Amino acid sequence: MSAPLLDSLIDSLRCLPGVGAKSAQRMAYHLLERDRDGGRLLARQLEAAMARIGHCAQCRDFCEGERCAICTSGSRDDSQLCVVETPADRLAIEQATGYRGLYFVLQGRLSPLDGIGPRELGLDKLVARLAEGQVRELIIATNPTVEGEATAHLLAQIARAHAVRPSRIAHGVPLGGELEYIDRGTLSHAFGSRSEVTD
Amino acid sequence: MSAPLLDSLIDSLRCLPGVGAKSAQRMAYHLLERDRDGGRLLARQLEAAMARIGHCAQCRDFCEGERCAICTSGSRDDSQLCVVETPADRLAIEQATGYRGLYFVLQGRLSPLDGIGPRELGLDKLVARLAEGQVRELIIATNPTVEGEATAHLLAQIARAHAVRPSRIAHGVPLGGELEYIDRGTLSHAFGSRSEVTD
Prior knowledge:
Chain A is an alpha/beta fold and about 200 residues long.
């Protein structure tokens, strides 16, 4: 109201996910009152990140240079390739599991209504990668949504066409979950996908 | 992990209030994936705001120039001066009430343990203002906390010393509140500050 610059800052902060008018105002006041250095640093980091972070030429994950640290690491197993929808999914798998293979990041999922087809997901790059013959297993870790399942289906077809074994991460009742409160779809899937108990 | 620039961006985003590691990561990925223009604009706005937003020479509120829009507006009543702790409090009063007087923003409250005394709150400036003789009523709108009350007490003393009438905004049961669920302190205060019902 009294300061157009302050109003524009509050407006701009709303581009952050989960930040509404009230939070944006609180953030702007906090930075101005107590952390101008932090605000300046954030401005510089944002500027640099938006300008210089691109995509890895091999796996399409975010990276600053030509190829990302995982793709250029000599210690990863290049016979396994895990396909995920987003860099955040890649990070989650990297943090939670002991997976030592490589990744391919779709940066989305098949969604014809939004104009996202195989080309937008870089599947031509994936096909070229599988054609090289190094990959033995394609681990499909797209989300268990309708679009994620459609994407998984297409990925499995592509894998089989190149004599690569496709696999899908397991879906079912989460650890610590209670059957009583699990949604029907998940429970039905978990029931149908039961595996034999061995000693 | 793979991109130092991405990690620094996530780190910097945590300077925002209420933003932890997970939200910061979500924000960084969101900007990189979907809103690089928004990110660039935010960087520019932050840079400009941190560098150019200062304090109004008269009321100490945030402002870009020498004096803020409210202080320079000719249409406000300069016989009333409302003292608040922060610019956010000033904005809240401006949005909720029809107050047409002027403001004085302490940018804090008395807190000797944190080294915040009368000098840090700009009380010398307030004293000079009251000495000018224009102000008839000093409306004290500090928060009803221990430190806010101590500040209010000092402000009232200063006002009386300059023959200015001090007033305090009312504290009590909020509109729509239920007596059963109000904290004891508020209820006791509301009971003690009861006013006569007139037709």
